[in-house]
Specification:
The complex is a heterodimer of chains A (about 140) and B (about 230). Chain A is mainly β and about 140 residues long. Helices cover about 0% and strands about 40% of the residues of chain B. Classes of the chains: A mainly beta (about 140), B mainly beta (about 230).
């Protein structure tokens, strides 16, 4: 029996190695969203057929000092026009085939009292960084 | 003097996250919707789980279990406690089987012993690859939800939330402020959420309008750049 927390590295147990690193830059065009509508963009990227566990992070150009990280689905809310209008960015990274990842970005507009009829959404750059991890035993 | 953690294939300043549990299951829809599954994991603690889900047994198209799975698998909730791994399957109308492949980390605050396992095959460490360093810890209710890492770059991170105690509300609003929405299912047990990182800190924020807020937060801050 051993105490796990005494070891920096313990070869009795598996860990992760970084098999690949991917940097995807996605340019989301300027658009206008009215009412409660939404707009969806998809971007496809090719990778190997291994089954990876991913660490994914997303940075939106308007807020370069923050990253959403962890699992592969994030949302963030960007406020426009002094709180009367907001746009939700829902970002989802999924493996869609043995050789393909897809990043889906859905922009949705919420409305409440005082909101204008539509929101002019600025062009945005989304930087998605994916570290593809495999168990140390897997080749 | 601190050095950039990204420059090293393996950096002994940071422990490697230890995977103490690996399993694969087939979840076939039952007579109820949702369908609950539970499997004994045999560990003396609730493992912090990560996993993939797919309608295909070869995982050719798959998604992270916690992200709603977006057309590659059904919606699945994954949790753990000190005895079981749980899955709640919300099958689509065609009632397909879902395949899940999961791994579990030991919680950072576990100080007990664990039986060693044999290591007869393959290599655990290969200098052809970078290895993931990890700053890990646990936050109790009443602790600050903000963790300083001071890596000097924006890292990738993962958080797990445990329990059902209310820890108060956090509301962030105002022009130009990001309000992170942390999507996961909350109930008893350990669940997985997103996290928000800067070059100096990890934020483990929770929305005030969620059902109940959790009493303990486990985190991994990886030395990988986000």
């Amino acid at each position: 029996m051993v105490k796990l927390n005494r070891f920096i590295m313990n070869t009795d147990y598996d860990s992760f190695k970084v098999a690949r690193k991917e940097d995807w830059t996605i340019n989301i065009p300027a658009t206008t969203i009215s009412g409660n509508n939404s707009q969806t963009y998809t971007y496809d990227f090719a990778v190997d057929p291994l089954v990876y566990f991913e660490l994914v992070s997303a940075i939106i150009s308007e807020y370069p000092d923050f990253a959403f990280t962890g699992t592969s689905y994030f949302t963030c809310r960007v406020y426009y026009d002094s709180n009367t209008s907001e746009i939700d960015y829902a970002i989802n990274v999924t493996k869609t085939s043995s050789t393909n990842y897809r990043v889906t970005v859905k922009l949705s507009r919420g409305t409440y009292a005082g909101a204008p009829a539509s929101t002019n959404v600025r062009a945005t750059t989304l930087k998605v960084k994916v570290n593809l991890l495999v168990p140390t035993e897997q080749e | 003097m601190a050095q950039d953690a990204r420059k090293f294939q393996y950096n002994s300043d940071y422990p490697m996250p230890l995977v103490t549990y690996r399993a694969q299951f087939t979840l076939a829809p039952g007579t109820t919707n949702p369908t609950l599954f539970k499997f004994e994991h045999g560990l003396p603690y609730a493992p912090l789980l990560v996993g993939k889900a797919s309608w295909n047994s070869d995982f050719s198209a798959c998604g992270d279990i916690t992200n709603g799975n977006s057309g590659v698998a059904d919606s699945i909730i994954m949790q753990s406690d000190n005895k079981y791994v749980y899955f709640v399957l919300f099958p689509s109308s065609d009632m397909r089987a879902n395949y899940v492949r999961i791994m579990g980390f030991v919680p950072p605050d576990y100080t007990g012993d664990i039986t060693t396992i044999s290591n007869d095959t393959l290599f655990r460490f290969n200098s052809d690859y970078d290895y993931v360093g990890c700053i890990q810890g646990a936050l109790d209710s009443g602790d600050s939800p903000i963790v300083s890492h001071n890596l000097g770059y924006i890292p990738q991170a993962r958080v797990w939330y445990y329990g059902t105690a209310t820890v108060g509300s956090i509301e962030v609003s105002g022009y130009g402020i990001i309000e992170p929405e942390l999507f996961t299912y909350k109930n008893s047990g350990v669940t997985v959420r997103e996290s928000l990182t800067t070059s100096t800190e990890l934020y483990t924020l929770q929305r005030s309008d969620e059902e109940t807020l959790d009493s303990k937060v486990y985190y991994h801050i990886y030395t990988l750049e986000g």
